[in-house]
Amino acid sequence: MVKDRLYLLENEFADPDMPGRSFYCRDCIALNGILAAFPDCGHDLEVIRVAFPRPRAAVIDAIGVDNQWLPVLVFVGDAPAELADRTHEGTHFVTDMPRLLHALHVRHGFPEAHP
């Protein structure tokens, strides 16, 4: 079964341009919290964690070299195009956090985020 894929950065990472410091992506951490808070949701969602440094091969393979920012939710076949905010070679995906949260609600049963 092919699943939508949610690409997140690893929880903690180093930035080669800022040695000696560690970082996290606030949107990726928030999504990790949502995934943990609602374990009965998203069973048809594949979560892929990738390292911070670019190039991010798994993301490039899915949506192209120009679309490596994260988090990103990549849709499979039957996703309504209006859920996406971008397209690469016919693959629809969403990067805008409010829209991504809405897509998780619509496609994967997560509660809806309060406006």
Short description:
The chain is of the alpha+beta class and about 120 residues long.
Structural features, described:
This protein has one domain. Helices cover about 25% and strands about 20% of the residues. It contains 3 helices and 5 strands. The protein has helices at about 25-35, 55-65, 95-110; strands at about 5-10, 45-50, 70-75, 85-90, 90-95. Strands 2-1-3-5-4 form a 5-stranded mixed β-sheet, with helices on both faces. The longest helix has 12 residues, at about 25-35. The chain is globular and about 40 Å long. The mean pLDDT is about 95.
Task: Please outline the helices and strands.
Layout: E1 4-9, H1 26-37, E2 45-50, H2 57-63, E3 72-74, E4 86-88, E5 91-94, H3 97-108
Parallel strand pairs: 1-2
Antiparallel strand pairs: 1-3, 3-5, 4-5
Helix content class: 25-40%
Mean pLDDT: 96
Quaternary structure classification: single chain
Specify the overall morphology: globular
Strand order, largest beta sheet: 2-1-3-5-4
Secondary structure: number of strands: 5
Task: Report how far the terminal alpha carbons are from each other.
Answer: 33 Å
- List the total number of helices: 3
Entry keywords:
alpha+beta
